[in-house]
């Protein structure tokens, strides 16, 4: 057997060279990391290495901090005293230390940092120092603080809203019960006078009583409109598939029967289905159809069309009629409570129907709008969100 001679001196030099190259590559790699401050410490907490990420985070150069105690990064006090901080002591006890806390830059400003400290051991398990990695999380901290503030604000607003809703419910109860009683009395006694004392009243007296009765009925209708608007604003929404085409056809027949109005036709696009609250969408369709009945009553060959169109990639449903229409200059008043574009002598109504429609559509995440011209009919669109 032959034994190969080894030049131990050359071998040791090669190993040293490889180690030196490895250390240099590691140092270059660490220094190239810009988003993390990577700091090495000796066993006494003195800074031995400071990468470019640390310089960006703390605004100190390596020459200014190497040889100083790492405590300067949390206290701002520059010292070379060999002393371990809480971070190193806890890392040595449990094998790793991590926390989030404020850290101080050279210019005195602070940033919110994630700090990880780990002890470094050699092959013999002797402690040789510590590695400290710091990441700037100030933006995340700001976002979290802002989110917490928003949560507190929303909680406070929810409490206020709950209180307002209780007050609104109490108001609605009062309106429904306390105001209806005198209105019923006004209307009832007016009718009684007309029936029981008709022979003792002249035409002007009868006209006055009719006006009182009509006004009481109108006030009752306004109360109904207000209560309905309040109800649809607070009623929970339960969405399900709604066959709009069938709903429109059924309500058209219902309104025809209620109004005793057969002199009108409707064309309904078949197969239109959407998602929404059944009761609330019934109110929408009823109001828009009833609106079309009302404003076509002076038109010959009255027609209503229900269908859909695609606008900017979204589905919009529409009711089109050939009625009186309205001036588009006043379109912004259409959906406001109590706003009317025509006098009560021309067309009956309280101005609450379209306001109720808009409130329901907005609660569904959609929108409602109209196009019209005086004497050329109107077209009301609505969408239902996603």
Explained architecture:
The protein is an alpha+beta fold and 386 residues long. The chain has three domains: 8-136, 2-Layer Sandwich (Beta-Lactamase), CATH 3.30.450; 139-234, Orthogonal Bundle (Helix Hairpins); 238-386, Histidine kinase-like ATPase, C-terminal domain (Heat Shock Protein 90). The chain contains ten helices and twelve strands. It has helices at 8-32, 52-58, 62-65, 72-75, 86-94, 138-196, 203-234, 244-259, 278-295, 353-363; strands at 36-41, 47-50, 97-104, 110-121, 127-136, 240-243, 265-268, 273-276, 303-311, 314-321, 368-372, 378-382. Strands 2-1-5-4-3 form a five-stranded antiparallel sheet, sandwiched between helices. Strands 7-9-10-12-11 form a five-stranded mixed sheet. A hairpin with a 5-residue loop joins β11 (368-372) and β12 (378-382). α6 (138-196) runs antiparallel to α7 (203-234), α7 packs parallel to α10 and α8 (244-259) crosses α9. The N and C termini lie far apart (85 Å). Mean pLDDT is 81; it is low at 1-9.
List the helices and strands and how they pair.
Layout lengths: L7 H25 L3 E6 L5 E4 L1 H7 L3 H4 L6 H4 L10 H9 L2 E8 L5 E12 L5 E10 L1 H59 L6 H32 L5 E4 H16 L5 E4 L4 E4 L1 H18 L7 E9 L2 E8 L31 H11 L4 E5 L5 E5 L4
Parallel strand pairs: 7-9
Antiparallel strand pairs: 1-2, 1-5, 3-4, 4-5, 6-8, 9-10, 10-12, 11-12
Helix pairs in contact: 6-7, 7-10, 8-9, 9-10
């Amino acid at each position: 057997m032959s034994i190969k001679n080894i030049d131990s001196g050359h071998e040791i030099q090669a190993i040293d060279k490889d180690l030196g190259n490895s250390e240099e590559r590691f140092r270059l790699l660490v220094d190239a990391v810009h988003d993390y401050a990577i700091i090495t410490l000796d066993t006494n907490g003195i800074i031995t290495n400071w990468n470019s990420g640390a310089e960006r985070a703390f605004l100190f150069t390596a020459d200014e901090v190497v040889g100083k105690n790492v405590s300067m990064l949390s206290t701002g006090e520059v010292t070379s005293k060999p002393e371990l901080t809480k971070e190193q002591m806890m890392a040595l006890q449990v094998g790793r230390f991590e926390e989030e806390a404020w850290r101080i830059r050279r210019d005195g400003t602070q940033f919110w940092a994630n700090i990880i400290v780990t002890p470094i051991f050699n092959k013999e398990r002797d402690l040789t120092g510590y590695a400290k990695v710091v990441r700037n999380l100030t933006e995340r901290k700001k976002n979290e603080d802002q989110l917490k503030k928003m949560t507190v604000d929303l909680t406070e607003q929810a409490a206020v809203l709950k209180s307002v809703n209780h007050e609104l419910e109490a108001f609605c109860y009062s309106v429904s019960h306390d105001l209806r009683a005198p209105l019923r009395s006004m209307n009832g006694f007016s009718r009684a006078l007309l029936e029981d004392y008709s022979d003792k009243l002249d035409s002007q007296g009868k006209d006055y009583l009719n006006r009182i009765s009509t006004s009481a009925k109108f006030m009752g209708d306004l109360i109904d409109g207000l209560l309905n608007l309040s109800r649809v604003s607070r009623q929970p929404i339960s969405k399900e598939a709604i066959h709009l085409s069938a709903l429109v056809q059924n309500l058209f027949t219902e309104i025809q029967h209620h109004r005793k109005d057969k002199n009108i036709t409707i064309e309904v696009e078949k197969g239109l289905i959407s998602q929404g609250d059944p009761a609330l969408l019934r109110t929408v369709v009823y109001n828009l159809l009833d609106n079309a009945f009302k404003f076509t009553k002076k038109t010959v060959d009255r027609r209503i069309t229900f269908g859909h169109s695609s606008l900017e990639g979204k589905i919009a449903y529409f009711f089109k009629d050939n009625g009186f229409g309205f001036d588009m200059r006043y379109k912004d008043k259409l959906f406001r409570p109590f706003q009317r574009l025509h006098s009560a002598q021309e067309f009956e109504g309280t101005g609450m129907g379209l306001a109720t429609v808009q409130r329901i559509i907005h609660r569904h995440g959609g929108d409602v709008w109209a196009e019209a011209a005086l004497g050329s009919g109107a077209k009301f669109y609505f969408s239902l969100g996603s």
